[in-house]
Specification:
This protein is of the alpha/beta class and about 180 residues long. The protein contains 6 helices and 6 strands; from the N terminus they run E-H-E-E-E-H-E-E-H-H-H-H. It has a 6-stranded mixed sheet, sandwiched between helices. Helix 1 packs across helix 5, helix 3 packs across helix 4 and helix 3 crosses helix 6. The longest helix has 14 residues. The relative contact order is 0.19.
Length: about 180
């Protein structure tokens, strides 16, 4: 991550993977830590099963625009999202790829690229639906402005009531310790 007091993150996948929840959690965690934050969602026409991504900026300073042209990090959950966003990550940035659903990108040797078997790891934590939390846990290894405690607090406050029974599984998925493959 850049050392300028700001993190620009794009979280992308398809509807139903918890993309928007993951972005909201990042933004809420930043807010809980007293940072300035923006959250900008974008849905495809179909929503569930269609494309979905969100822009999250966490900053120690004011944020002039919520739109991210060149993110510091991209968290991608599927192949189409990888194709769409891998070229946008800034030189020296971080690309986290759910390697359960997407192959490693080609043609970028100017990034830190890590594959995370998020679906498999989420199943080991108790539910395949927690793959988004596995990916957030991986992202936290690189964040300078967020910490796991704030993300866990945000998760608790944002997890819909109908999914409260999954709180412990999501917490486990967030804190999994696994090697990152590059």
């Amino acid at each position: 991550m850049k050392a300028d007091g700001q993190e620009k993150i794009i979280v992308a996948g398809f509807g139903g993977q918890g993309i928007m929840l993951a972005g909201k959690i990042l933004a809420q965690a930043g807010h809980l830590l007293g940072r300035n934050v923006t959250y900008l969602p974008s849905y495809g026409a179909e929503v569930r099963g269609g494309t979905a991504h969100c822009h999250v900026i966490i900053s120690e300073d004011e944020i002039p625009s919520p739109v991210i042209e060149s993110p510091d990090a991209a968290v991608v959950m599927n192949g189409p999202s990888l194709e769409k966003f891998q070229t946008r990550v800034r030189r020296g940035g971080i690309l986290l790829v759910n390697s359960s659903l997407a192959a490693a990108p080609l043609g970028r040797d100017d990034l830190e690229i890590y594959g995370v078997e998020a679906n498999r790891l989420a199943e080991e934590a108790g539910s395949a639906k927690a793959a988004n939390m596995v990916m957030l846990g991986a992202y936290l290894r690189f964040s300078r402005l967020l910490n796991p405690g704030a993300v866990e607090e945000a998760l608790k406050s944002l997890l819909p009531a109908r999914h409260r029974k999954l709180l412990e599984i999501n917490r486990r998925a967030l804190h999994l310790d696994f090697p990152l493959s590059s």
